[in-house]
Amino acid sequence: MEELPLIAGADDRHPLDALFINAPLRDYTLRPRTNDYTLPVLGMAYIATYARRRGFNVGVLDAEAHGLGAEATARIVNEAAPRWAALNLLAPTYEIAAQIAARLDPGIALMAGGHHAKAMPDRVLADPRMRHLRALVLGEGELRVAALLEDEQNRRTLPGVLWRDPLLGTRAAGIADPRTGAALLGPDIDSLPYVDRAFLPQDPYRAAPTATDLRLAGERPWLGGIGAQGHWEANIVGSRGCPYNWTPQHVEHWQRTGERPSPVMVWTPEQLGVFLDEAESSRLYALYHLIAFRGLRRGEGVGQDWRHVDLDAGLITPAKTLMVDSGEVFEDDPKAEESSSTIALDSLSVAVLREHRQRQLAERDEWNRYAAEQREQGKKVADRVDTGKVCTDLDGTWLHPERASEEFRRIVRRVGLPPISLRDLRHLAATLVHAGGGDIHAVKKVLRHSTIALTSDTYPELLEDVDRGIAEKAARMVPRALRRVDSEPAAPVDDAQDFESGEAA
């Protein structure tokens, strides 16, 4: 394996038990990539870490990070000759993943999982390019992947593991012991090891110099050359989790116990309406409206300039953000280029911003009258500062981001809604875009994610709906005399959470 340096985390002194493959978003052989950094495959790395603890020699091939094409990826896998190859199936990468699978040596056992696997398992199993697929894993991957590495025959007793019977051509599924099945589908997170960063090929990495680097280079000379070379960054080892809705059951549990079902919770549209009605009287109402409907981040909302808002055209560009460092607020550019993309404003948002602008001008006049009165009394009170920001403090200076959060929490408590953070409010934009007919790509555009993979990882239920909707439309295109195609779709095999906690396989 010495000639295979792109495989992360493997022990090249011993044969590979498994190689986890993150398929690229497109075939970079045909069109080379333009950016030099991608999000880490934390899910795959978690599964690989657990498999290593169980004594298996495993590695990760992040074809997206390395900018590989389908043929190059398959060639590396075949040269490495692992016992198992494990593919992560997502809607944006499925086609490339299937091309890789078709090129693999038949002697390499194949397992797969991911959002696409759970949403459309029969379609994956029927794909001729997946003919060497030995196990389709739905749900959390760590424990069951390790069991498959131990013995392929274990699939017969693993819940949520599917395969196609080679003789009958029908779908087969593992039958679990009721006493152990739940633990295999939802393992105790506290018992799992922290991710081994050896499986992350771009972690840590040197980020390009930012405005913050330039500022710090001038203020803190001991930091060396960050102004010219940028700074080192490492990914947080953890997960913000997929957003959970405050359903009546969750609300009842919270009211009874005070416990939140998940660190990341999202209101229903009805709950958002209650909040917005109560927040109408707040001078920060426009900020909360933009976060909820257009997905602005907190720092982007308080850093938004009027010069980057075109109310006549209905467009807004979050070109600046306010950050907090050691208690001090400073202005910076968005970290990712996609974050400063222009997005459309609906007519209601335009109306809210017009009203907010009129209120802001009235505040300016009121403050200046107050300042003049104070100066007549010998007090030093300046006129309102014009920072050009959409949301400001009463004197026109920058609004501290935490002030926006404090006001948000006060309104939530006052109206008696279940708690969410101001950051969680941004997740509602994804829900509303999807409810309005937008697909996962529309959600990515509004939230200005750097990759479609980030959107699908954060909102897996949206991706499943998209996949399922495409499948239903495809089925309706073929007229049938004996079988109706407008009936309700079959229930999924099981309701385990998406494989993306362990993205792999």
Tell me what you see in this structure:
By secondary structure, the chain is α/β, with parallel strands linked by helices. Helix content is 40%, strand content 11%. It has helices spanning 42-53, 63-66, 70-80, 94-102, 115-119, 121-126, 142-150, 181-185, 211-219, 226-229, 248-257, 269-279, 285-294, 298-303, 347-376, 401-415, 422-435, 440-447, 452-458, 460-476, and strands spanning 18-22, 58-62, 84-88, 109-113, 133-137, 161-164, 171-173, 205-207, 231-233, 244-245, 265-266, 309-310, 315-316, 321-325, 328-332, 343-344. The protein has a 7-stranded mixed β-sheet, sandwiched between helices. The chain has a 3-stranded antiparallel β-sheet with strand order 12-13-16, with no helix packed on it.
The helicity comes to 40-55%
Head-to-tail CA distance between termini: 21 Å
The averaged pLDDT comes out at: 82
Structural class: alpha/beta
Indicate the low-confidence ranges by residue numbers: 237-241, 487-505
Write the SSE topology.
Layout (H helix, E strand, L loop, with lengths): L17 E5 L19 H12 L4 E5 H4 L3 H11 L3 E5 L5 H9 L6 E5 L1 H5 L1 H6 L6 E5 L4 H9 L10 E4 L6 E3 L7 H5 L19 E3 L3 H9 L6 H4 L1 E3 L10 E2 L2 H10 L7 E2 L2 H11 L5 H10 L3 H6 L5 E2 L4 E2 L4 E5 L2 E5 L10 E2 L2 H30 L24 H15 L6 H14 L4 H8 L4 H7 L1 H17 L29
Parallel strand pairs: 1-2, 1-3, 3-4, 4-5, 10-11
Antiparallel strand pairs: 5-6, 6-7, 8-9, 12-13, 13-16, 14-15
Helix pairs in contact: 1-7, 3-4, 12-16, 13-15, 13-17, 17-18, 18-19, 19-20
